[in-house]
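Re: that backbone. Tokens:
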């Protein structure tokens, strides 16, 4: 077992804990010390047992408030998780009308025919004369 010296409300205490638990004990002692220091600042000097009792009660009150908030948030989370998945939003994609597609195909065919004609004229003019 490890022995740890902690300070609460300006008073030192020797406390035993399991090996490796020293950081947790120091953290808990710091929380208790914060409450005890606040009490000492408000009320002044008081007996050790009363200071520790009041500081412990203040921490218990904070803990109860946090536990209630946690229960509320867990209930809200359960409610949200229990809801059905929202239906996907339908997105309308405009479709090119058939007559436009046909007109574009006709224009493309005419362009290809013109290109073939220009190519044929260019080939005929560049052949050597006999």
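Recovered sequence:
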């Amino acid at each position: 077992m490890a022995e740890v010296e902690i300070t609460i409300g300006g008073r030192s205490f020797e406390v035993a804990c399991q090996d490796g638990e020293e950081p947790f004990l120091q953290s808990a002692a710091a929380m208790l010390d914060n409450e005890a220091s606040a009490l000492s600042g408000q009320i002044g000097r008081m007996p050790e047992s009363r200071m520790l009792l009041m500081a412990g009660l203040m921490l218990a009150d904070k803990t109860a408030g946090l536990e209630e908030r946690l229960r509320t948030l867990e209930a809200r989370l359960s409610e949200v998780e229990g809801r059905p998945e929202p239906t996907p939003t339908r997105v309308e994609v405009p479709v090119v009308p058939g007559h436009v597609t046909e007109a574009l195909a006709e224009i493309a065919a005419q362009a290809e025919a013109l290109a073939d004609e220009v190519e044929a004229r260019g080939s005929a003019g560049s052949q050597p004369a006999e």
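Strands lie at 2-8, 11-17. The CA atoms of residues 21 and 129 lie 105 Å apart.
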